Amino acid sequence: xxxxxxxxxxxxxxxxxxxxxxxxxxxxxxxxxxxxxxxxxxxxxxxxxxxxxxxxxxxxxxxxxxxxxxxxxxxxxxxxxxxxxxxxxxxxxxxxxxxxxxxxxxxxxxxxxxxxxxxxxxxxxxxxxxxxxxxxxxxxxxxxxxxxxxxxxxxxxxxxxxxxxxxxxxxxxxxxxxxxxxxxxxxxxxxxxxxxxxxxxxxxxxxxxxxxxxxxxxxxxxxxxxxxxxxxxxxxxxxxxxxxxxxxxxxxxxxxxxxxxxxxxxxxxxxxxxxxxxxxxxxxxxxxxxxxxxxxxxxxxxxxxxxxxxxxxxxxxxxxxxxxxxxxxxxxxxxxxxxxxxxxxxxxxxxxxxxxxxxxxxxxxxxxxxxxxxxxxxxxxxxxxxxxxxxxxxxxxxxxxxxxxxxxxxxxxxxxxxxxxxxxxxxxxxxxxxxxxxxxxxxxx
Length: 445
Description:
The protein is mostly helical. It is built from 19 helices and no strands. The longest helix has 36 residues, at 267-302. The radius of gyration is 21 Å and the shape is globular.
């Protein structure tokens, strides 16, 4: 392993304990998916029992993935996360291509989807016209991008408030739904004859579990990563899985499966209205809106750092422009670029399609991360590893097989979207060779 990785790790302050590390997992994962996806999961699976199974399968794949990436992050605790790890394990090209995917698809698609989810709930809350869906989504993205351009302090304030608020609707819907609901939970049909299948259902749950990868890359700042990291991942994702299952069970207890499918993104709000009346339902809907708003803020805060980091290495067109910071110390030009691409994705109008695009392509690259563990294992002894994934090679194998299943299911179920994502990814390859060629010419001159 390169010496650079060891140096980066030794320079980090180790003051992160188990509780804040676990809170980081929970805070990064819980966002909009639990409120937006129950209907789509049931629709894809075909009935409520298979829908609940999809949430469990998605959680187990995520847990295996998190434990596997934890070993990678503990050994290569470098700024840039998986982007830096792929760069070190596989070489500059694969690190670049992952960064390109995050810049051109993953970040903008998720920001666009969250903007659309937010506007789709805001419209019925204030009885706005459906024609305002796209303008409200774009306006929300522009608002938060402007706030984050003025300094991370302001974006961080929004994030802290939203993280605390997002747990309120989850707890209230779960507790009171299971207590007061009276609908049958298991073996309830989606009401639709043709189902997309478990692959599509699990893919939808992975959007709700997304965000887990970040905790593996603060390993260098943990007091004892060998103990804290796996515990934080297991406990944190365990809490998330319980919360997600509880909310799904509660919503099914309140609304029939077919109605959840029909209600779509509004199902959680409808369940809240049934439980708490008009006023209470509105309060819960406010909590859901705040949760999505905070999640959107988090992605707008973090995603532009990827193109900014790539621009510092000269790995994007107009790198000299994208690598500049504003007088507020923020990567303003990178933020503007991400907003422009996100707005283009918003015009597609379907947030579920955007999240599927993002999950498909990012899990394709996660496979490379999982496989990197086997490469590093050949280069390091157990004494050199701060943390070793348990039940090796079973856990990494589960992560890899699960990822391949998700990617192949997407290609089968929505080939046009898969081709679109792969096409944008391939579009980064000629850029890489062009920029490399320019760099070599400049170094000779």
